[in-house]
Amino acid sequence: xxxxxxxxxxxxxxxxxxxxxxxxxxxxxxxxxxxxxxxxxxxxxxxxxxxxxxxxxxxxxxxxxxxxxxxxxxxxxxxxxxxxxxxxxxxxxxxxxxxxxxxxxxxxxxxxxxxxxxxxxxxxxxxxxxxxxxxxxxxxxxxxxxxxxxxxxxxxxxxxxxxxxxxxxxxxxxxxxxxxxxxxxxxxxxxxxxxxxxxxxxxxxxxxxxxxxxxxxxxxxxxxxxxxxxxxxxxxxxxxxxxxxxxxxxxxxxxxxxxxxxxxxxxxxxxxxxxxxxxxxxxxxxxxxxxxxxxxxxxxxxxxxxxxxxxxxxxxxxxxxxxxxxxxxxxxxxxxxxxxxxxxxxxxxxxxxxxxxxxxxxxxxxxxxxxxxxxxxxxxxxxxxxxxxx
Length: 390
Ligand code: SF4
Known about the structure:
The protein is of the alpha/beta class and about 400 residues long. The chain has helices at about 35-50, 70-85, 105-115, 130-135, 140-155, 170-185, 200-205, 215-230, 250-255, 290-295, 305-315, 325-335, 340-350, 370-375, 375-385; strands at about 5-10, 55-65, 95-100, 120-125, 155-165, 190-195, 235-240, 240-245, 260-265, 270-275, 280-285, 300-305, 325, 355-360, 365-370. Iron/sulfur cluster binds near residues 18, 19, 22 and 64.
């Protein structure tokens, strides 16, 4: 299988401390990233690009974990390996996630001078109690300091992550936090609803009934937040993502648009599609020592058949406010397949409930759940799972 243009995700699975809501793979208690890990990562980037004959990187995303634990030399080393492995066009988006607690003038200078053209900063909240209850490293003061520094020193694109409905967050604190965020003029904001994953400290507290959670309050807060962002120049283009026009996350759009991506680093996943839409998916080991010893051989893999891939096309594509189209489907699955009639009928049923919008003309057929229907995306997927998709 080959892929001439691919998105590249790089995983840095190290964090100083673990946040209590987080289920991303990372090792807490790490103050830095071992050189041996960076070397293994570079080896994997070159090896994967060669194996799949990647000619150019459409986008790069350095996520974690905490990529801001990388030092300047390591960042340079990773970017060199990326450029050595395949062409990195000027127009390609290159993002790195930063923890506000790590943001310094020096770090921003290093990044300004590098090929990285977008930073994504995990602010999460401006409520002191909420942040300390989740064991975030940065408090509201540190969050504000980091954003002020970005405003003064950072010259390129920037995105902010926040979580809606953390314990102790009130409507007042959440909305004033949003006002503060918008005042720093990011071009992109990801506003996630808090989820309780079973294996996280928050999930355990909830399952053991040691904390209570008001889902209705949290949903109402999210809707208020959306309204606020829309009144302040941002538009929702995905379930949890808002941007100014033209500043959407191109890397994440690859996932939602059913495009090939390579994942490098311990715990990372990659999916490479062929012309018929079936795919090869690999997932690297979460055993960091094993990964370092043999970064190109420590993974499991699976073949994704066309039926599963069709389902994933809708599950991911309908996350976008623009929805999915016959043309996109055709591009993903080749000439033989069209959007199944069963799916079109489901879309029609949802349109009758005002939760879907179908557009049909001689050129294309498309449908979207739109801003209202997208709130019920899981229900739509549930109904989709019952259908005959071939
Ligand atoms: S939220 Fe980020 S900093 Fe916190 S544990 Fe997860 S990956 Fe680490």
